[in-house]
């Protein structure tokens, strides 16, 4: 068990002895019973764990100020959270306009996995041509010069990749 140094010990003793007075200070600011308990607990932890470099001349006044500050912080936090968090009266999350269903992400991940498998099955040069065409936006003539083949062959390679990827969509449609 850890020992409490004397300034903190005095503060904790005053806090425990005058808890009902501190509760009334917090309840005037916060208002709700359950939240008052949260504020008092935070204040207690602040007094126990906080840095107290010198002895406090008025321990009760110090405790009152800590409780008051915690209650005000709690109210400010509640206002900020209230402006950010949206909920419905029954506690469920409300429908968001333009939102996607929860399983949409799963389908997208499955599609990406299928695309990776399909691309991995292709020859490396064909994959490289596809990356230049779709990811870098190069023309077929530019790709032909980079790879050292005819533009017609580049066209056939791109067609082969698109055919392989079309199979991915068919798998997901099933």
UniProtKB/TrEMBL annotation:
The keyword Zinc does not apply. GO terms for molecular function: DNA binding; sigma factor activity. It comes from the Bacteria. Pfam families: Sigma70_r2, Sigma70_r4_2. Residues 17-78 form the RNA polymerase sigma-70 region domain. Keywords: Sigma factor, Transcription, Transcription regulation. Residues 113-159 form the RNA polymerase sigma factor 70 region 4 type domain. GO terms for biological process: DNA-templated transcription initiation. CDD domains: Sigma70_r4 (cd06171). Belongs to the sigma-70 factor family. ECF subfamily. NCBIfam families: sigma70-ECF (TIGR02937). This is RNA polymerase sigma-70 factor (ECF subfamily). It comes from Roseateles oligotrophus. The lineage of its organism: Bacteria, Pseudomonadati, Pseudomonadota, Betaproteobacteria, Burkholderiales.
